[in-house]
Structures are given as structure tokens and as C-alpha cells.
Design brief:
Layout: E1 4-5, E2 13-17, H1 18-27, E3 35-39, E4 45-54, E5 58-68, E6 77-82, H2 86-98, E7 101-107, H3 120-137, E8 144-148, H4 151-157, E9 162-170, E10 181-183, H5 191-196, E11 202-204, H6 213-224
Parallel strand pairs: 1-3, 6-7, 6-10, 7-8, 9-10, 9-11
Antiparallel strand pairs: 2-5, 3-4, 4-5
Helix pairs in contact: 2-3, 2-6
Subcellular location: Cytoplasm
Function: Specifically methylates the N3 position of the uracil ring of uridine 1498 (m3U1498) in 16S rRNA. Acts on the fully assembled 30S ribosomal subunit.
Organism: Helicobacter pylori (strain J99 / ATCC 700824)
Length: 226
């Protein structure tokens, strides 16, 4: 663990309780003499705290140091992924986070699984997964998450995003990944959706194999950092 997340990190004093307390003081057995590095995952600063008190159900921390320390990928990457199974989204989130993806937009394509609902509770769970990933890899800013109800909404929001499809030019490392790369579901895009893409750059993955949506995400995120 590179640091501990706390939404109020930077305050002169902090209280650690609940799941964080159990993890730090019962699982990891942090001692009172230890100092802890904390982040709020918003401002890029690393805050160092010492212990003022460790009680049975909470710990009180006192701020003793601050340093600017941003840890992010060199290039920004925005993936626009059609909704796939929730368990598969949760599985790839830590990988995308470690590869420096700056934003993940989810949308319901024509062939998306409609029984998979992306609501505020799901987005909150996704964010929790990302927080744990940041604590492990050291990333200093959270990945942005959002959801759209259909393809046209996503296209309207990102008019310069390119599309990953079977028929297109080989995806170059020089592509503008910050503008967004649209990745379809397992069944690909419908003919109607392909009609929406006529004015956009279309790319394909330079492999003879057909990748799952989650594999395509990891591939694009990796290429973006070359």
C-alpha cells in the first residue's frame, strides 16, 4: 500500500474508523509510532500524519507534513465502453487505473446486455474499487466515471471520439486517445450505429484474433502510453 485514502486528507486532524480502521489497525497492525501517508485523490498532494491516539474503534491523526507529489500516466486516455457484464467491468477497472486511463465512459449500445444496470450505487462501487487500486499502485488522482443511456448520447457528448471496429485502419500509438476511443460490446456495433460513425476515425486492433471488450480496453490503454 503506497498511501491511505481519506476524503478529508489535508485537515489538521483526522479520525480513522470503520473499514479503514479495521484494515489498518487489526489487519495490518499499524503501531502508534508509525507515520501514515494519506491522499484525498483530488489535489495531488501527499499528506503525512502521526498518531495522536489509537482507541479500540478509532484512531486520531495529526498532520505533520505536506508535499506535492502527482503520480499519473504521461498521456491522458479516455475510453468510451459499451456496457458489458458488471463483473467484467469490475475486473478490468484496476488494470485500466494502473495503465493511467483518465476517464471511463459507459454507454448502452444496441447490442449491450440491457439486464446490466449502471446506477449510482454501481458507480459508487466502481469508485471504491478504483480507490483501492490507487492505494496499491500510488496513482494520485481518481479516474473519472460516467454513464450514458445510449450510443447517440455518448456520441453527442464526445463528437471527436474515434471508434474501434473490425473495419478500419490499424490503431496507431499516435492516435489522440484523450478525445476518446469508443469500444463496442461482444456482438459488435449494429448497422445503425455504424451509420452514426461515418464522419469519425475508425480503427482496428492489429491482431487476427477477435478480442473481448474488456481485452480491447486493456489493449487500447496500453497502446496509448507508448
Amino acid at each position: 500500500m503506497r498511501f491511505v485514502y481519506h476524503p478529508l486528507a489535508k485537515e489538521p486532524t483526522l479520525k480513522i474508523e470503520g473499514e479503514s480502521y479495521i484494515h489498518l489497525y487489526r489487519s495490518r497492525r499499524i503501531k502508534s509510532a508509525s507515520r501514515l501517508d494519506l491522499r484525498n485523490l483530488k489535489d495531488g498532494f501527499l499528506y503525512t500524519y502521526e498518531h495522536a491516539e489509537i482507541a479500540k474503534k478509532h484512531a486520531l491523526l495529526r498532520l505533520v507534513g505536506v508535499q506535492p507529489l502527482e503520480i499519473m500516466a504521461n498521456k491522458k486516455t479516455h475510453l468510451i465502453l459499451s456496457v458489458i457484464e458488471i463483473k467484467n467491468i469490475e475486473k478490468i477497472l484496476p488494470f485500466l487505473n494502473q495503465l493511467g486511463v483518465s476517464k471511463l465512459s459507459l454507454f448502452y449500445a444496441d447490442f449491450s446486455q440491457r439486464n446490466e444496470k449502471i446506477d449510482s450505487a454501481k458507480l459508487e462501487r466502481f469508485q471504491k474499487i478504483l480507490i483501492h487500486s490507487c492505494e496499491q499502485c500510488g496513482r494520485s488522482v481518481l479516474m473519472e466515471l460516467e454513464a450514458f443511456s445510449n450510443t447517440k448520447e455518448a456520441l453527442k457528448a464526445y463528437p471527436k471520439a474515434s471508434v474501434l471496429d473490425f473495419n478500419g485502419e490499424t490503431l496507431p500509438a499516435s492516435a489522440d486517445f484523450e478525445k476518446g476511443v469508443i469500444i463496442g460490446p461482444e456482438g459488435g456495433f449494429s448497422e445503425q450505429e455504424r451509420g452514426y460513425f461515418k464522419e469519425r476515425e475508425i480503427y482496428r486492433i492489429p491482431l487476427d484474433m477477435v478480442l473481448k471488450s474488456e481485452s480491447a480496453c486493456v489493449f487500447v490503454a496500453s497502446i496509448a502510453q507508448i
